[in-house]
Amino acid sequence: MAAEAVASGGSAALAAEAVAAGWVLELSCCCLCRHFAEGRAAEFGRWRAVAQAVISGFSKLATHQKKMVYLCQLLIRIANGKELECNFEKDPRISPLESALSFWTLLEREESKLDKLHEDIRRLIQIQAVAVHMEKGYFKEAAEVLERVFTYSESDKPLRGKLATIIKSKDPYIPLLQSFNYDLLISKVKSYIERFRKENEKNFLLQAAMEQVESKGLEAVVLQNITVNVNKEEENNLETTQRFTEEQPSTTNQLPEDATKSIRRRRSKRKCRASNVLQSLNSLQNVEELDTQTCGRRRRLWTLEEDKKLKSGVREFGVGNWAKILVHGDFNNRTSVMLKDRWRTLSKIK
To answer: How far is CA 282 from the centre of its chain?
Structure first.
């Protein structure tokens, strides 16, 4: 009996782990989609590691999980599509986009209906799998890719012939390749992501985390931590640039013109990236000062206009969705906790 109880407990634990792994897979897929769509490379990289670890732990996928896994693998490969030295397959000749094409095929099989968006993405992956080799001057390899990604079917024949001619011309800047460029591929994939996210809005872990954030007013702390991390990264990058400048051998203590331009470009990109992050953070909400800083100061009274905005937000988003109400209500130096407390007060007055 004791052995049976232990076995039963072990089975329950394994079942619970499988359920939890499914939740993490959903969260990973959701985060990868969002960061890919928003162009956040660092966040995408972190969730890529999580997704790959979770996916490798599955011995068998449930039907509803297959599409998420295929989409994660597709995004990871497209994000590295121009890095030909990056290998995802055992055969080192297979480029990231060729590997992405195989997962797009799997994704199409999971779709109940294929439309023009599916066709566009397939064609763009095929074209860019050839084009990225040509851009780097690998024309022989581009011809080999053409043989692998295009069939001899009637539907593939016209485009296959055009690309073969382009490869022979050794001109990667021909109008056809410019019209079906990598940016267009990214744009189409983002459209697919948007559709996928609308069809898969429910996410247990994300919803639970959102409730925790809203109930405890954690969003201000999280945003401040992100801002601090951005500032630290900027400082570290500046120190690296300064070291690089100091270590350059020069009799006049000046960098060569090309190196100087390179450093200026890197500084400009870092400033732009930090500025974009901070702007997006500021657009989410106005972060109030820490309680320790405001201790002893007189609390600002709520105005009639703010009460109207709060009531309007509750009507639109419902009680409890304080973070959404805060973002859409354009409140001045308020937090979701303050909104919740004010609503409790208004409810008592009623």
So the answer is: 19
pLDDT at 285: 38
In this structure, what is the dihedral angle of CA atoms 278, 281, 286, 292, given to the nearest 10 degrees?
-80
In this prediction, residue 340 carries a pLDDT of 86
Task: Give the Cβ contact number of residue 46 at 10 Å.
Answer: 13
Tell me how far apart the alpha carbons of residues 106 and 238 are, in angstroms, rounded to a whole number: 45
Answer yes or no: are the C-beta atoms of 39 and 75 closer than 8 Å: no
- pTM (predicted TM-score): 0.59
Other Cβ atoms closer than 10 A to 98: 21
| Residue 348 structure tokens | 């008592």
The helix/strand/coil state of 325 is: helix
CA diameter of the chain: 85
CB 33 within 8 A of CB 197: yes
Higher-confidence residue of 194 and 257: namely 194
What's the chain's average pLDDT? 78
Calculate mean pLDDT across residues 71-96. 94
The CA distance from 107 to 32, in Å, is 16
